[in-house]
Every structure is written in C-alpha cells, then in structure tokens.
Amino acid sequence: MPALKRRTFLQLLAAALPPSLFATTLQAAVPAAPDLSPIPAGEDRYGIKRPLPNGTTTFKVSSKDCRGDFFAMEHHHTKKGGPPLHLHTVEDEWFYVLEGEYIVKVGDQLHHLKAGDSVLGPRNVPHAFAFVGESSGRFLITYAPAGRMEEFFDSQDRAGGRTYDLKDRMAAYGMKYLGPPLSVS
Q1: Which of 64, 113, 125, 154 has the highest Cβ tally under 10 A?
Q2: How far is CA 11 from its chain centroid?
Q3: Residue 172: count of CB within 10 angstroms of its CB
Q4: For 84-105, what is each residue's pLDDT tens digit?
Q5: What is the CA radius of gyration of the chain?
Q6: pTM of the predicted protein model
Q7: Start-to-end C-alpha separation, the chain
Q8: Backbone angles phi, psi at 130, to 5 degrees
Q9: Where are the alpha helices (DSSP H) in 70-163?
Q10: Separation between Cα atoms, residue 118 and residue 177, nearest integer Å
Q11: 117, 119, 64, 68: which is closest to 91 by C-alpha?
Q12: Dist. CA 80–CA 85, nearest whole Å
C-alpha cells in the first residue's frame, strides 16, 4: 500500500469531517456586526448627553463599530471658542464644517472655514480650532485610527462637571498639550 502524502491525507480528513464543523469555526472567528441603526440628527450613538465648555458633542460612529479604525463625533457649538493647541501622536483628525464659521490652525497655517469646508490635522502636527460664528455651529470631527479619542471624551463625561488637569488628561490619552486655545473675539 503506497504511503499517503500529507496533503492527500489532510484533504481526505477535511472531506470526512461534517461541514457544520467548519461553519461553526468560521462563525466563531467573525466578530459580531455592530448596530447599524441610523443615528438621528442631534442624537448620540449611545443616547448620552455630552456637554462641552462651549456646547455639546454627540458620538456618531463608535470606535467599537469598526475595530478601532475610525471614530466620528459631531460638535454643536453655541458659544465661541475651542480646545487648546495640541497634537495627537496616533490619530489623524479631520474637521468638516456642517454649519457656522470656524477657524482651524494646522501647523503654522490658519484656515477660516464655513459650511462644506474641511481640513485635515495630521498626527504629530500641532492644531486647534475655534467656533467664531455669530449664532451656532456644527462641526464633524473624525479620527483615524480611532486611538483612544472615544475614551478621552468618555472620561470627560465621567468627570461630571468636576475640574481636572487638562494637560494630564490629554497626556493620558496620547495627546500633547502645546498651548492655549485660539484667541477669538
């Protein structure tokens, strides 16, 4: 009787096993699909109210929905201002104006953006933005990869109005505080 080659043996073994065994194995390896329900305008992915110093924010796409590859949130600003000058060491940050007027500093360039305008803040490049409109503004911000940005904003929500050292908090989530917010009048 001739000796079976390894490949032939494995093919015979695979043919003898029930197909349901492979289906179960494949299903176990595929992660569960995220909840793909639409997020209504003005609503948060998790139904949470998330205050900002000059407005509110809502999560639109969770980093958990896409294996940490992406995170999207929408800021609604009712007062002028924005975050301090900073940089991200892991994430690229993309800014898209939905409504209102903003200034965005990326590196040494200052951009005046209106509805429909966007600009990228690449990782390791200093950037800041500020709402400068007269009424209110809406700003879509995305991070790719998501890094720990969702956790950063969740930690702000958990602070519940308590004061915290922003420099230390930013450092804990992979950002570097570089200076004060953009000056707005």
Answers
A1: 113
A2: 45
A3: 13
A4: 999 999 999 999 999 999 999 9
A5: 23
A6: 0.78
A7: 91
A8: -150, 140
A9: 149-159
A10: 23
A11: 68
A12: 16
pLDDT tens digits, 40-79: 999 999 999 898 889 999 999 999 998 999 999 999 999 9
Taking every pair of Cα atoms in the chain, the longest distance, rounded to a whole number of angstroms, is: 91
Contact 65, 101 (CB under 8 A): no
Confidence of residue 22 (pLDDT cuts 50, 70, 90): low
Strands (E), the chain: 50-52, 55-61, 71-77, 84-88, 92-99, 101-106, 109-114, 118-121, 127-131, 137-144, 175-181
Q: Side chain identity at 181, as an amino acid letter?
A: P
Nearest to 88 by CA among 50, 129, 144: 144
* Cβ atoms 122, 100 nearer than 8 A: no
Inter-CA distances, 157 with 55, 57, 92, 181, Å: 13, 10, 23, 20
